[in-house]
Amino acid sequence: MSNINESLQELMNLDGAMGACVVDYMSGMVLGMTGNGGSIDLELAAAGNAQVVKAKVATMRSLGIKGEIDDMLITLESQIHIIRPTHNHEDLFIYLVLDKSKANLALARRKVQGIESKLEI
């Protein structure tokens, strides 16, 4: 098990990592943050992505889709954003911003998955 700050620091060791945070998607509040996100305001992005997660959860419920979200990927021209709801801690997600030209998406997804499984709040 590792705490929020240790977990976020591990994510920043990924090639292309620009910023990461743990977010309560019900409130949009950031519980921990590291990195500068490049040109992105991580707190503002986290709050906006909390709305995305809430909308997806509500849509899945209304469609009767069972199961949990593994992760959500948002690819931009120069960045990749990974949003991974935590299964051990309800209403939280890990948010990672990567430089698309430097990152390895498969490795980043695996790393976020590993962090999520050992995150201690």
From TrEMBL:
Organism superkingdom: Bacteria
Protein name as annotated: Uncharacterized protein
